[in-house]
# Entry
Amino acid sequence: MMKKLKRRAAAFLLLLILPLSLFAQGAVTGDPKSDSMPRFSLAIRYAPAVPRIAAARAVFLASVPSDSPAPKVLSFGSWSRDFLKDAGEIWSFPLHIRTRDIVPIAGLAVLTGVLIANDEAIRRDMLDYQMKHAWVKAISPVITEMGSFGAFGTAAAFLFYGLIAKDDKSVETAVLASSAMLQSGILVTFLKGIFGRQRPFWDNGNDRWSGPVGFFSRFGAGQLGRYDSFPGGHSITAWSLATVIAMQYHESVWVPILAYTTATGVALSRVTEGKHWLSDCLVGSVLGYVIGRMVVLNHHSRY
# Structure
């Protein structure tokens, strides 16, 4: 019992340390002209100052004659170019790791390791909690869809409303959310193939890792989805969407709260639904948050 309590205390402590280290890195400022680091980083220090953006935009608009048409920001051509640029930052990130990235990466790695060591016990406890609480059993299968069809349906709803109401911000949010979710989907599929972790609903909940060999065995009879547990796909999708919406509508305190609460619910539901280990959901959530943030910041810096 004492050993189990120590493990949980360590996991809880690391859970507190990781976000603190992320936001501590965010307090660092640098000259954008001399800082060549990519925006894709767990060291969250790239949020451009809102007054600076507003001032720059005001200067730009003042320089444009009143009878000149506004620049067309969103088009298929601009979206595809931006998508490729963002993908380049994501996939080249390992080549651009800097000292300031080490603390959050190490924190995430340690926390993930602690969770992996306790994933089987955590899964049993969460399933037991679900069985004892009817509201969890009722909500879990519903909210989990917000990491799949519900997420893309939400992006489509923003697009539909934006087109009908001529709301450019809503259309922009739909495009950015779709871009972030697509980037996340490509990355998570690659990582699933690398790690080949067995899902918890196989082999009586025993945690197994088989690498690429196990992942590609999915094409065998009855093996579909067996070795593609890590990281969590629904979690990365939900957090990509939530981050874009939260950043686009940050002026309302309730939008980020609702967005991130829903994304957290999706991640937890993947465990209560028996589809993922908690460590899968943690890593998927962090990656989804970072990618969503990168897509939004890159878009606003370009336009």
Observations:
- The chain is about 70% helix and 0% strand.
- Residues 75-97+121-302 form a domain with the Vanadium-containing Chloroperoxidase; domain 1 fold (CATH 1.20.144).
- Confidence is low (pLDDT under 50) at residues 1-38, 42-53, 63-71.
- The longest helix spans residues 99-132.
